[in-house]
């Protein structure tokens, strides 16, 4: 397998990973910022206050976007498995 092919496969894998994880990470980031703003305004410094809303947001996004994430990952895996004979030396 040529080095360029390996880099291309790694790049495709990283872009797929970034695209699939972006909705969950974005939601958790927004909730974390809102909770931090709330804590700064009210001067409540409770560590568990930020954990539960982030967990709920992550679960909600996974429920909403989970089927798309699974389809995207399965399609990527299918493309990689079908491309294996091309890269076999």
Put the structure in a nutshell.
It contains two helices and no strands.
Percent helix range = over 70%
Shape: elongated
Q: Number of helical runs?
A: 2
Which consecutive residue ranges, at least 5 long each, have pLDDT under 50? none
Strand content: under 5%
Our count of domains comes out at 1
Name the structural class.
mainly alpha
Tell me how many strands there are: 0
* Oligomeric state of shown chains: single chain
Radius of gyration: 19 Å
Overall mean confidence score, pLDDT: 91
Characterization of the model:
- The chain crosses the membrane at residues 12-35, 55-77.
- Role in flagellar biosynthesis.
- Belongs to the FliQ/MopD/SpaQ family.
- Pfam families: Bac_export_3.
- It is a multi-pass membrane protein.
- The chain is an all-alpha fold and 89 residues long.
- The chain has one domain (23-87).
- Helices cover 91% and strands 0% of the residues.
- Helix 1 (3-42) runs antiparallel to helix 2 (47-87).
- The radius of gyration is 19 Å and the shape is elongated.
- The chain starts with a helix and ends with a helix.
- The mean pLDDT is 91.
Blueprint of the fold:
Layout: H1 3-42, H2 47-87
What features would you highlight for this structure?
about 90% helix, mainly alpha, about 90 residues
């Amino acid at each position: 397998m040529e080095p360029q092919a390996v880099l291309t496969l790694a790049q495709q894998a990283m872009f797929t990973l970034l695209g699939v994880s972006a909705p969950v990470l974005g939601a958790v980031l927004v909730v974390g910022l809102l909770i931090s703003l709330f804590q700064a305004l009210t001067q409540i410094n409770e560590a568990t206050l930020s954990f539960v809303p982030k967990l709920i947001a992550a679960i909600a996004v996974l429920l909403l976007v989970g089927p798309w994430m699974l389809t995207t990952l399965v399609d990527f895996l299918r493309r990689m498995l079908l491309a294996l004979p091309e890269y076999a030396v």
